[in-house]
Write a structure and sequence with these properties.
- The complex is a heterodimer of chains A (about 200) and B (about 650).
- With about 200 residues, chain A is of the alpha/beta class.
- Chain A contains 5 helices and 5 strands.
- Helices cover about 35% and strands about 30% of the residues of chain A.
- Chain A has a 5-stranded mixed beta sheet with strand order 2-1-3-4-5.
- Chain A is extended, with a radius of gyration of 26 Å.
- With about 650 residues, chain B is an alpha+beta fold.
- Chain B has 16 helices and 23 strands.
- In chain B, the strands form 5 sheets. An 11-stranded antiparallel beta sheet of chain B has the order 17-16-15-14-13-12-23-22-21-20-19. In chain B, strands 6-7-1-10 form a 4-stranded mixed beta sheet.
- In chain B, helix 1 packs across helix 14 and helix 10 runs antiparallel to helix 11.
- Classes of the chains: A alpha/beta (about 200), B alpha+beta (about 650).
Chain lengths: ~200, ~650
C-alpha cells in the first residue's frame, strides 16, 4: 500500500496540475498588432482588405469622371457582398471601413443600404402622424444612388495532411445604376500557409 | 479471442523486457491505476437517461440530462455534438450551429497527438484519451450544420458548410485510403442541392456526380437515391430546379457501443481485456409519406448511419485491441513492480487494480439517427400546409408531423423532424452507477479508496472460488465447513475459505481470508472478506471487510461487480486430466489422491491432488510455467473443519 507520504505527494502534484490557471487573463493589444491564431479569417485580413480597397477606390478615375459629367458628388449604395468562400466571414467589417473612408473623404456620398432605410422610412411615416408640421420630413426626398457596390469573397484551399494553403480573393465592384457599366473594380488577394499542431 | 491468448503469452515474455522500465513505470503506473479508478458506468450506459428523454420528445429534459453528465475535458466533443443535436431537434438552429462550431473547433484541436494521453491510455484505459470524433461523425456535422442554415433560409452560409465539407472529406479520405464508407454520400447529395440553390450550377452538377459515385462506393445496402439520379439527368439537360419542399427525418437513435470484457486467469494472476462492441438499435420508421393538398411523395433512405458506425468500429478494432494488449503488458510489469516494492500483498492488490481499471471506450455520438430518410414534394410557389406521416415496416402509422412552408419560385424549402424509438427500445443503463465522489478519495490514514475495496473483493472471490479459472474439486463446501490453506511459494494467497451459512432464500455467506507469507502468524494483519452471494454464488450481494490495521466495515456493493462465478468443469474433463493416483502429505493429513494435470492457456501447467475425504475435494494444487520447473504457486490444505462462524459480525 502507498504510504501516507506518497499519497500526500500524489494529491499535491495532482492539485498543482489543476490549479494552474485560476482566473482569466486579459491583455490589451494594439489594433494594428498582427496575431494569427487558428489560420482562419481574422481582423488582420479584414484590415488589409479595407486598406487596399480604400486606397484603390479613392484614387480611381471614376470620381473625377462622374464630377465632370454630372457636376455632383457620386452617391454609392452598398448592396451585397456574397461569401463564396470556405469560412463564415463577416463582410461588414471591411465594408464599414470603406463607407467611412468614402464619407470622410468628402468626395463620395454614401446612401443608406436596403436594410438601413427600412428604419428611416418607418420613422418618416411615424413623423407624418406624430411630429409637428415644421419638423415633419416628407417622403419622396431620398437621394438616389448613382452606383451600387457589390462584391464576392472567394477562396481556394489546397490541403494535405496537416498543412493547408488558403488563398482568399476579395473582389468589389462599383456598378453604375444608370447604365450597368462597371466603373471601378477593386481586388485584394491574401494567401496563408497553415500547419496544424502535431502534438499538444 | 485468439488475440487474448497470444496477449497473455506476450505478457510473460515481455515482462522480462519490461523489467528495464522498472523505476519509472512503478511510480506512474501505480499512481494512475489507483487514482484513475473509474466510475462504474461506461459512457454509453450513463447517456441512456438523456436518450430516453429525447425519445419521449422531452427535449428540455434531455438537455438537462446532458448537462448533468458534465462531459468535459476528454469528453467535451461529445457534449458539444449531443447539445448541438438536441438544439437542432428543438428547432433552435442558430444555437445548434454555435455548438456544432465548437465541436468542429475541438475536433480540430484533438487531431494533434497528446503524449500524456497516449501514455495514459497504455497504462489505464482508452477513455483517458480525448474524444476526437470518429471520421464519419466529423463528416455528419457538416450535413446538420448545413440543414440548420437551410432551415433558417440562409443558403449562403449553407454553401460555406458545403465547401468546408469538401476540404475535410478530402483530408479524411487521404488518411483513410481504403475506407470507402467515409465518402460522405448524404452530405454530398445535400450539398448538390445547396449549390444549385445558390446559383452555382457547375458546382451542383459536379457534386451530384460525386454523390452518386460515393453512394456506389459506400455500397450501404440501399440503392442510390432515385431523386438524385433524376437531379443529375435534369441538370445535364439544362432544366431548372423544381420548386419543392425537402423533408428530412432523423430516424431512430443512432448506433452505440457496449463494453465486452474478457477475463483470463493465468498462473496466480487475473488479466482483463476490455473492448467495445457494436450495438445496432432498432430503426422505427420504414418510410415517410409527405402529403399536401392531394399530392404525395414517399421518402428514400439517404444515409444508413448504423452501417457507417459498424464499419468504423471494424476498422478501429485492430488498433484498439493492440492498445489493450499493450496495456496488459504494461500492467503486468506494474504488478511485478508492486510485488517487488511492496511485497506480495501489494502485488496482489495491484493486480486487482489493473483489472478494475480496464474499461472499454464506448464513446460515440449516440444522438445521431439510425438512418436518414428524405422525401421531396414538388409544389408551386407560395404558402402550403404539409403533413409527414411515419410508417413502420408493417405499414402501421407510427406518428405524423404537420407543418407550414412558404416556398419561393424556383427554390427549395427545407423542413425536418425526428422520430426516436419508443422508450422501451432504448437500452437503459444496466445498473450503472458512478460512485459518489468521496468514495473515490483516499482516506486520510492512507488506505485504499472505499469504492475500490468492493471491486477488489469481488475479484478476490473470483480467485478464491476458481483457482486458475476453474475448481477441480468434485464437490464444494457444505454450509459450516471451512478449509485453511498454506502456500509454499512466495505469494499472497487465500489462507482460508469458509462457507458460513446458507440462508432460506438460497443466498450464501462465505468468508475468505488473505495472508502474505511474512504475516502468517499475525492475525491482525490478515485481510478478511465476508460476502453474501446469490444462490450458486452467481452474484455478489453484500460485503464486509477487514483490511489490515483498519476498522471492519460494510463495503458498498453495486450492480456492476467484477465477480465471476466459478466455472465447473465436466466430469469427463476432470477424468481425462487424471494421470493416476499419488499419495500426498499435507498439513491436513496424508491422502491417496487422484492427480490431475491441466495445461494453462498453453503457458504452463496446473496440477491437482483430488480426494473426496476433504471438504472441497482438493488437498493440494499448484501452477508452474514449465512442466519441470519450480511452481509459481503452490497451495496445500492445512486443516479443515465444521462450524465456521462469522468473525466480522455479518449476521
Amino acid at each position: 500500500m502507498l504510504s501516507k507520504r506518497n499519497w500526500a505527494l500524489i494529491l499535491v502534484s495532482a492539485a498543482a496540475l489543476t490549479l494552474g490557471g485560476c482566473g482569466t487573463e486579459v491583455k490589451r493589444i494594439d489594433v494594428g498588432e498582427v496575431k494569427d491564431l487558428s489560420g482562419n479569417w481574422n481582423d488582420t485580413d479584414s484590415r488589409l482588405v479595407s486598406e487596399e480597397m480604400i486606397r484603390d477606390s479613392l484614387s480611381g478615375g471614376w470620381i473625377t469622371r462622374h464630377e465632370q459629367k454630372s457636376k455632383k458628388t457620386p452617391a454609392v449604395i452598398v448592396q451585397s457582398v456574397r461569401n463564396l468562400s470556405h469560412e463564415h466571414i463577416n463582410t461588414r467589417t471591411f465594408i464599414s471601413d470603406l463607407e467611412r473612408a468614402f464619407v470622410n473623404s468628402g468626395r463620395v456620398d454614401v446612401v443608406a443600404s436596403k436594410e438601413e432605410r427600412e428604419d428611416i422610412r418607418n420613422e418618416r411615416v411615424d413623423q407624418d402622424t406624430n411630429a409637428t408640421e415644421e419638423s415633419r420630413k416628407a417622403a419622396g426626398k431620398e437621394a438616389g444612388a448613382d452606383y451600387s457596390l457589390q462584391g464576392t469573397i472567394n477562396t481556394i484551399i489546397d490541403a494535405s495532411g496537416k498543412e493547408q494553403i488558403k488563398f482568399y480573393q476579395i473582389d468589389l465592384t462599383l456598378i453604375s445604376i444608370v447604365d450597368n457599366r462597371k466603373v471601378w473594380t477593386g481586388q485584394k488577394k491574401l494567401k496563408k500557409d497553415v500547419t496544424g499542431a502535431t502534438f499538444r | 479471442m485468439g488475440n487474448v491468448i497470444s496477449g497473455i503469452k506476450g505478457i510473460q515474455a515481455l515482462i522480462k523486457i519490461g523489467n528495464g522500465f522498472r523505476r519509472w513505470f512503478f511510480g506512474f503506473a501505480a499512481i494512475s491505476m489507483v487514482l484513475a479508478l473509474p466510475g462504474c458506468a461506461t459512457y454509453s450506459a450513463s447517456i441512456g437517461q438523456m436518450e430516453t428523454a429525447a425519445a419521449n420528445r422531452d427535449l428540455d429534459g434531455a438537455v438537462k440530462d446532458l448537462d448533468s453528465l458534465k462531459l468535459t475535458g476528454a469528453d467535451e466533443t461529445l457534449h458539444f455534438l449531443n447539445k448541438a443535436t438536441l438544439l437542432r431537434l428543438q428547432g433552435n438552429y442558430s444555437e445548434s450551429n454555435k455548438y456544432f462550431d465548437h465541436a468542429k473547433g475541438v475536433m480540430e484541436k484533438y487531431n494533434a497527438i497528446s503524449v500524456t494521453e497516449q501514455a495514459g491510455s497504455v497504462v489505464v484505459n482508452d477513455t483517458l484519451k480525448a474524444y476526437e470524433g470518429l471520421p464519419h461523425e466529423q463528416l455528419m456535422v457538416y450535413a446538420f450544420e448545413a440543414l440548420n442554415y437551410l432551415q433558417s433560409d440562409n443558403i449562403e452560409d449553407a454553401a460555406v458548410e458545403a465547401r468546408q465539407f469538401d476540404v475535410k472529406q478530402h483530408l479524411i479520405a487521404e488518411k483513410n485510403v481504403k475506407a470507402k464508407y467515409l465518402s460522405g454520400s448524404f452530405v454530398r447529395y445535400l450539398n448538390s442541392m445547396i449549390y444549385e440553390g445558390a446559383g452555382e450550377k457547375d458546382e451542383a452538377r459536379i457534386e451530384m456526380e460525386k454523390a452518386i459515385a460515393s453512394y456506389k462506393a459506400q455500397n450501404s445496402g440501399f440503392p442510390v437515391p432515385h431523386a438524385l439520379t433524376e437531379d443529375l439527368k435534369r441538370i445535364e439537360s439544362g432544366k431548372p430546379a423544381p420548386t419543392e419542399t425537402v423533408f428530412v427525418l432523423h430516424n431512430g437513435l443512432g448506433p452505440t457501443l457496449k463494453e465486452f470484457i474478457a477475463r483470463v486467469a493465468s498462473g496466480s494472476n487475473l488479466y482483463s481485456l476490455a473492448l467495445p462492441k457494436f450495438e445496432r438499435r432498432h430503426v422505427p420508421v420504414s418510410r415517410v409519406v409527405l402529403s399536401s393538398e392531394g399530392t404525395t411523395a414517399t421518402s428514400e433512405i439517404v444515409e444508413n448511419v448504423n452501417d457507417l458506425a459498424e464499419q468504423s468500429l471494424k476498422d478501429r478494432l485492430p488498433a484498439i485491441t493492440a492498445r489493450a494488449i499493450a496495456r496488459l503488458v504494461a500492467k503486468g510489469v506494474a504488478v511485478n513492480e508492486a510485488k517487488k516494492k511492496g511485497g506480495d500483498f501489494a502485488g496482489f492488490v495491484a493486480n486487482i487494480a489493473t483489472n478494475v481499471s480496464e474499461r472499454a471506450d464506448t464513446r460515440s455520438w449516440t444522438l445521431l439517427p439510425g438512418n436518414i430518410l428524405m422525401a421531396r414534394l414538388p409544389l408551386p410557389a407560395g404558402k402550403h400546409k404539409l403533413t409527414a406521416t411515419y410508417y413502420s415496416a408493417s405499414g402501421n402509422v407510427l406518428g405524423s408531423h404537420d407543418f407550414e412552408v412558404v416556398i419561393k419560385p424556383g427554390r427549395k424549402t427545407f423542413a425536418s423532424d425526428y422520430f426516436l424509438n419508443s422508450s422501451d427500445n432504448i437500452r437503459v443503463a444496466e445498473g450503472a452507477e458512478t460512485p459518489a465522489a468521496p468514495a473515490n478519495v483516499a482516506p486520510a490514514g492512507g488506505g485504499v479508496p472505499v469504492a475500490a475495496i468492493g471491486q477488489y473483493a469481488s475479484v478476490a472471490f473470483t480467485y478464491a472460488f476458481s483457482a486458475g479459472g476453474y475448481w477441480l474439486g468434485s464437490k464444494d463446501l457444505e454450509p459450516g465447513e471451512w478449509t485453511k490453506w498454506t502456500s509454499s511459494t512466495g505469494q499472497a494467497y487465500v489462507a482460508e475459505k469458509a462457507f458460513l451459512k446458507k440462508e432460506e432464500n438460497g443466498n450464501e455467506w462465505w468468508r475468505i481470508v488473505f495472508n502474505t507469507k511474512e504475516k502468517e502468524k499475525d492475525a491482525s494483519k490478515q485481510l478478511i472478506f465476508e460476502a453474501l452471494f446469490a444462490p450458486q454464488r452467481a452474484r455478489l450481494l453484500r460485503l464486509r471487510a477487514q483490511f489490515p490495521g483498519q476498522e471492519t466495515g460494510e463495503i458498498p456493493v453495486t450492480e456492476q461487480q467484477y465477480y465471476f462465478p466459478p466455472s465447473k468443469l465436466t466430469r469427463e474433463s476432470i477424468e481425462g486430466a487424471v494421470v493416476g493416483k499419488e499419495s500426498v502429505q499435507v498439513g491436513a493429513g496424508q491422502f491417496n489422491a487422484s492427480k490431475a494435470v491441466y495445461s494453462v492457456m498453453g503457458a504452463g501447467v496446473s496440477e491437482w491432488w483430488l480426494t473426496d475425504k476433504v471438504p472441497g475435494g482438493v488437498a493440494k494444487y499448484l501452477f508452474k510455467a514449465k512442466k519441470d520447473g519450480a511452481p509459481a504457486l503452490e497451495m496445500e490444505l492445512d486443516s479443515y473443519g465444521k462450524n465456521a462462524k462469522s468473525v466480522l459480525g455479518s449476521f
